[in-house]
Task: inverse folding
């Protein structure tokens, strides 16, 4: 294992929480009980983490507050992550406050093996918009799966599935929540999001913060491309009916090598999605986005972007009392020409970066 991988493992375990290593194809994942995060992915011939981890995570003193990897949060963001909607609209960055019961949470390990881990927790949340409470049991499983069919011998891979389960345990009528899976990735690269129709004519991507500008979000009749360079704070979203349920993060390395993180999830048009911008109607509770992407503006070693998806919501007193959401992620590394060619067969659109 590379030195940084071992350091992340040791730093996590120094907090008296297990860290689980999962063999996934040619690679290995590190799943921390603290925060229930897939903190790292390593592949042969790739020097660094395929995921983003904050440099402080290598220090045991800071590992108690995990920052990086793939995490499970609970949406809607407007419901939990600020003391009030008014403060969110005044200055979203200044007043942001992640509830500790969401992250890092109090996860425990239910089962583990060399190829899987399952973690669970319980949490109680109060929506700042209307004071409604919701009680949830949360389960998160990560397991290795087979590579995509036809994988060229020139490419190394790590493939895994995630299953996030929300189970209602109580709350006020109409209280709403959904699983929100967020994978943090290092810059610089392009997130490619195939669409079901031309977004120029049918659906402009939702803007959550600053305007997109002319460079960072580009659309054509087959996909939306999103530049992750950690130089401009933007977030975009696509509704369930406009995403094919696939997105891929393409990043060029040195010496003609590249990586691709392909994520396959299950958008369900017509089901309730509660995540909406902070300037949306105060009474809106559904009609939000299924796919989201984020580019932060920190730059340097703390710069990152995110590829995100949502499962449909549970609503107290309305609809199912549990939601099971699954995704599959294939991480590929190898010669750039082979990454682009095989990536296109999996994604359905050309692997074309934003320069």
Result:
């Amino acid at each position: 294992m590379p030195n940084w991988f071992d350091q992340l493992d040791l730093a996590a375990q120094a907090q008296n929480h297990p860290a689980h290593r999962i063999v996934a194809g040619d690679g290995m994942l590190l799943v921390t009980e603290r925060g229930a995060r897939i903190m790292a992915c390593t592949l042969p011939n790739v020097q660094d983490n395929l995921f983003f981890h904050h440099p402080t995570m290598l220090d045991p003193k800071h590992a108690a507050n995990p920052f990086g990897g793939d995490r499970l949060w609970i949406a809607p963001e407007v419901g939990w992550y600020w003391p009030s909607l008014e403060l969110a609209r005044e200055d979203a960055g200044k007043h942001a406050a992640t509830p500790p019961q969401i992250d890092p949470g109090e996860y425990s390990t239910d089962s583990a093996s060399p190829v899987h881990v399952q973690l669970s927790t319980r949490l109680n949340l109060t929506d700042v918009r209307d004071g409604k409470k919701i009680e949830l049991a949360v389960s998160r499983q990560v397991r290795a799966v087979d590579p995509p069919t036809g994988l060229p011998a020139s490419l190394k891979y790590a493939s895994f599935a995630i299953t996030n389960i929300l189970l209602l345990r109580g709350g006020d009528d109409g209280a709403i929540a959904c699983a929100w899976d967020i994978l943090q990735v290092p810059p610089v690269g392009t997130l490619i999001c195939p669409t079901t129709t031309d977004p120029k004519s049918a659906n402009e991507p939702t803007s959550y913060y600053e305007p997109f500008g002319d460079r960072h979000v580009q659309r054509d009749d087959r996909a939306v491309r999103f530049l992750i360079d950690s130089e401009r704070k933007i977030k975009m979203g696509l509704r369930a009916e406009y995403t094919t349920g696939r997105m891929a993060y393409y990043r060029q390395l040195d010496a003609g090598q590249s990586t691709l993180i392909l994520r396959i999830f299950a958008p369900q048009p017509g089901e309730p999605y509660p995540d909406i911008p902070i300037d949306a109607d105060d009474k809106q509770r559904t009609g939000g986005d299924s796919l989201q992407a984020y580019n932060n503006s920190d730059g340097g070693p703390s710069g990152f972007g995110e590829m995100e998806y949502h499962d449909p919501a549970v609503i107290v007193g309305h609809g199912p009392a549990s939601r099971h959401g699954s995704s599959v992620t294939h991480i590929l590394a190898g010669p750039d020409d082979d990454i682009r060619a095989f990536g296109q067969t999996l994604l359905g659109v050309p692997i074309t970066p934003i320069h």
